[in-house]
Design a protein that fits this description.
It is built from seven helices and no strands. The longest helix is centred in the N-terminal third of the chain and has 25 residues. The chain starts with a helix and ends in a 5-residue tail after the last helix.
Length: about 150
């Protein structure tokens, strides 16, 4: 029984090592843009247009989400946890203004831009930062690219 646990443990470790090795050789830095990103931005654009055409005043919510999706995923390349923090604050922000009966793009942006700036600054200060200008902003970029920083 103990022998089979050891074999299973060794197999799991080998699997993790191979996964890490595969991840290490694929690490990149800087801006990125893929076909998936183009599809996502197109979908956001279509959703915004569908809301805008009948005169809905909520089209800008989609535009803000799409713009931040692009900034966070492609330009600054935030870790998921920071993206989710931003998203939670955004939902709370919009909800707050709805409850006050004063939902307006300028109100939401006045509260959200400091959050956006904060999560971007938080990411740039991280040793794993690999977004735009990472070669200038992150002295440990080489360690990240080579896999020494998770």
């Amino acid at each position: 029984m103990a022998g089979s646990r050891q074999i299973a443990s060794d197999m799991k470790k080998a699997e993790l090592d191979s996964t890490c090795a595969a991840t290490q050789c694929k690490r990149t830095w800087g801006c990125r843009f893929s076909a998936t990103d183009a599809v996502a931005l197109s979908a956001f654009g279509a959703a915004g247009a569908v809301l805008y055409l009948p005169g809905s005043s909520l089209w800008w919510v989609v535009a803000i989400a799409a713009g931040h999706f692009f900034l966070f995923c492609n330009v600054f390349r935030l870790v998921r946890r920071r993206e989710l923090i931003w998203a939670a604050v955004f939902v709370l922000n919009v909800t707050f203004w709805i409850l006050l009966g004063r939902l307006d793009c300028s109100n939401v942006m006045a509260c959200q831009l400091p959050v956006s700036t904060g999560v971007i600054a938080w990411e740039i200060k991280a040793t794993r930062y690999h977004g735009i200008f990472a070669d200038r902003l992150n002295p440990k970029l080489g360690d990240y690219i080579e896999g020494r920083i998770p």
